[in-house]
């Protein structure tokens, strides 16, 4: 038992150290979130895939080089011979070579494809750019999610702090009332009123503690830390901008900077190029090819010889599809329908962005007004509590008056805390709606 006790004593500093809170600024939280996000890794992989697809299609426009080689063992047959009258024995025209070795090097270059390859390459490039813009949007959305979780944890901690301060006030109030009851100045009913209020504050404190735990778990989950990591908020709420641009300017700003709108525009261009590529099948296809042969025996060299010989050829190929039962037409119609969908999706997104910017703008104005009202409410509630407390001490205010003052002070401080966090998040939403980081 002594050894176990000694071991526990030696390990206790490590346990205390492991329970220390991790100091975390908003910038560090965003950095950790972006580095550890699985969703962003998925989005990044989509960008790599789209870039590779674009490179693949572009490669089809360049010369292709292919090498083929083979070996064939033939069965023995009688050689081809001719019997001439002037000769006593037949003359072998083509000897039999049972071991055949072949190799061919082919170079092929498309010359004209009705712009199919060029437009397909353009469509793939636009799609890759759209995927890149999608990744930018996903980063911005994830950074906002981390901001939201960070400031909500800040709010939960502040609410818990305010409730704790109120708990101390009510506890002090209860001691005073109990002393007064002992002196026969108040009835037991007055003590019970304060005890009920104390119980309500204790219940609110339990809820506040749970809210802190949940908010901390959500933030830990977003930034890739273990869910039970104890975090300590290191950043304080920044001062909000004194002026906000006009909503018209904000909407135009969003149209220029929003990555999702840029991605939608790239998809419209990709669809337009796909239409041209589909219609390219109506034009002839021309390609140039060349082959170099090194074979044993070489079938082009007669008579057949059991030795390696090289030959070559160059050709120009033209193909034109005369009839395919409307396949090209149907493909063009599909591509045009996809183009119309992409254009409508882009225009619909512009409408949604306009609405989002207007909503975010109004939210900023509304929460800014709330902060001003809440600040005045705190000043008034603090003064009311101070006056009521002094009156209660001098016997000119009732126990109920002081309880009401304590409740008003608690509510005003909670309103102020919530409104400050809501204002910061409203500005963050407006920045995201504009497509800006700061």
Brief characterization of the structure:
This protein has helices spanning 2-18, 26-36, 38-59, 116-182, 188-223, 247-257, 259-279, 327-394, 399-434, and strands at 22-24, 64-73, 80-82, 91-94, 99-112, 231-233, 285-295, 309-319. It has 438 residues and is of the alpha+beta class.
Description of the molecule:
The chain has 438 residues and is of the alpha+beta class. 66% of the residues lie in helices and 13% in strands. The protein has a four-stranded antiparallel beta sheet, with no helix packed on it. Strands 1-6 form a two-stranded parallel sheet. A hairpin with an 8-residue loop joins strand 3 and strand 4. Helix 3 runs antiparallel to helix 4, helix 4 runs antiparallel to helix 9 and helix 6 packs across helix 8. The protein is elongated. The two termini are 60 Å apart.
Topology overview:
Layout: H1 2-18, E1 22-24, H2 26-36, H3 38-59, E2 64-73, E3 80-82, E4 91-94, E5 99-112, H4 116-182, H5 188-223, E6 231-233, H6 247-257, H7 259-279, E7 285-295, E8 309-319, H8 327-394, H9 399-434
Parallel strand pairs: 1-6
Antiparallel strand pairs: 2-5, 3-4, 5-7, 7-8
Helix pairs in contact: 2-4, 3-4, 4-5, 4-7, 4-9, 6-8, 7-8, 8-9
């Amino acid at each position: 038992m002594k050894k176990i006790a000694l071991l526990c004593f030696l390990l206790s500093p490590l346990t205390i150290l492991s329970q220390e809170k991790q100091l975390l600024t908003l910038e560090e939280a965003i950095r950790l979130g972006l580095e550890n996000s699985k969703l962003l890794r998925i989005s990044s992989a989509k960008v790599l895939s789209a870039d590779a697809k674009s490179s693949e299609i572009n490669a089809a426009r360049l010369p292709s080089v292919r090498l083929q080689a083979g070996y064939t063992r033939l069965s023995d047959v009688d050689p081809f011979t001719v019997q001439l009258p002037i000769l006593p024995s037949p003359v072998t025209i083509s000897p039999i070579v049972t071991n055949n070795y072949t190799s061919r090097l082919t170079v092929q270059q498309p010359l004209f494809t009705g712009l199919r390859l060029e437009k397909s390459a353009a469509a793939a490039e636009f799609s890759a750019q759209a995927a890149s813009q999608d990744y930018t949007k996903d980063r911005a959305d994830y950074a906002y999610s981390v901001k939201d979780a960070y400031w909500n944890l800040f709010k939960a901690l502040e609410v818990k702090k305010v409730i704790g301060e109120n708990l101390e006030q009510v506890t002090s109030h209860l001691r005073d009332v109990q002393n007064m009851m002992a002196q026969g100045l108040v009835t037991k009913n007055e003590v019970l009123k304060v005890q009920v209020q104390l119980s309500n504050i204790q219940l609110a404190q339990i809820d506040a503690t749970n809210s802190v735990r949940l908010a901390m778990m959500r933030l830990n989950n977003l930034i890739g830390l273990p869910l039970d990591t104890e975090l300590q908020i290191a950043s304080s709420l920044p001062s909000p901008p004194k002026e906000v641009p006009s909503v018209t300017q904000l909407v135009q700003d969003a149209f220029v900077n929003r990555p999702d709108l840029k991605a939608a525009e790239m998809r419209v261009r990709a669809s337009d190029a796909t239409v041209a590529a589909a219609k390219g099948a109506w034009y002839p296809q021309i390609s140039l090819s060349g082959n170099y042969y090194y074979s044993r025996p070489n079938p082009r060299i007669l008579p057949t010889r059991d030795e390696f010989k090289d030959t070559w050829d160059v050709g120009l190929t033209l193909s034109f599809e005369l009839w395919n039962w409307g396949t090209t037409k149907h493909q063009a119609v599909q591509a045009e329908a996809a183009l119309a969908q992409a254009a409508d999706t882009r225009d619909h997104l512009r409408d949604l962005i306009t609405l989002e910017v207007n909503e975010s703008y109004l939210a900023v104005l509304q929460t800014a007004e709330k902060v001003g009202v809440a600040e005045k409410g705190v000043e008034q509630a603090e003064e009311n509590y101070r006056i009521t407390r002094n009156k209660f001490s001098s016997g000119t205010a009732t126990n109920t008056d002081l309880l009401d003052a304590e409740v008003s002070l608690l509510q005003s401080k909670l309103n102020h805390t919530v409104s400050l966090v809501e204002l910061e998040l409203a500005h963050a939403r407006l920045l995201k709606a504009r497509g800006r980081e700061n």
